[in-house]
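Predict structure. Chain length: 431.
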Amino acid sequence: MIDSFRDAFRLPDLKNRFLFVLAALFVYRLGAHIPTPGIDPEAMARLFERGGVLGFLDLFAGGALSRFSIFALGVVPYINSSIVMQLLTVVVPSLEKMQKEGEDGRKKITQYTRYGTVIFALVQSIGMVSWLRGLGVFYGGFLDGVLAVATVTTGSLAVMWLGEVMSDHGIGNGISMLIFAGIVARIPGAIAQTFTMVRMGEMNILVVLLALVIMVAVVAGCVMLQEGQRKLPVQYAKRVVGNRVYGGQSTYIPLRVNTAGVIPIIFASSVLLFPYTIARFFSGPVAEAVQRIFSPGSVVYMILYVALIVFFSFFYTAVVFNPAELAENMKKYGGFILGIRPGKPTADYIEKVMSRITLGGALALAAVAIVPTLMSGLLNVNTFYFGGTSVLIVVGVALDTVHQLEGQLLMRHYEGILKRRGGKSGGLLKL
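Prediction complete.
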């Protein structure tokens, strides 16, 4: 990985992309520290000292929510809008047809996702300002409230734009990189707070060491889950084209155990946090019951969390992986799986295998997401959010970024070889 980053800085194009990502992350972290007018910082800090779901929400915002900065909502409205649009593409035939139209259809769906982000950001900002006003954290008048809503909504749209330009002009997925930066930015403060508590005797050093061992094991499990794949052997028949013989070799199709990556974790967390957030704006026994049920750590929350992770794993895999298209391409180029007839039987077999490994990957993903949270509660490590969700996001985004960087390096390596060969051929032709 270190070699890949070193090689990237030797190429001007990749170096500019990498520096662009760093500059965009700097702007994002700068905006996370600019407070929204009308907020009492001390009262806001006391509110988030309770932890719980507020700390979990602040995790996705990178600490911006606890300061109620201009980027307080972070990428949450964009994620919510993306979830709704992906579900609608399955339910609404016109959107499903639009998705299959190619690049133009995807651009239209992206535009609808942006419109949805505006709606979600506006609703959530109004709810947050009203809730903070009721708690006495927001002390401004009506016009100050309107200004705060406009500021936070605009900040959320700026974060969405920043993530998109990072995807277009940087390396990796921009939205995922912003979430990654928000989680990583909290690590130095968490380490310093843990060290202070150990030095003052408020936390046992053996408990901290045990937590570190569990964290290393979780990271190793995340890497294995992200990199694991099932190799499906494929045999290609020999083809005679002119005087040459093509094919006849054996290869394999790499089916990833966790095709969806960290998407199921992010989607499941966002869906479960939505009813809790809405319930916070109301009072009464029903609102309290909803908050208690959907609070992270409750039994109902854990069960729903596992179910949604499994659902989104299958859903996202079905969106990005098409067994029928893969079987048709294999048939076109003379490829077949031993013992399976080409065409539809091959597609059915690939879909059957993919369903099995997706189920195993989804359950493993849910286990990695839940077990660290349970261990954190047992060990009473509350200086930082010691959860599998944050670890999975950090590991998944880091691996995905490294793979994309290696792909860019490999592409430029072959381009360099072709250019050198082209130059030599041009010289011979001139002679």
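Summary: The first strand starts at residue 229 and ends at 236.
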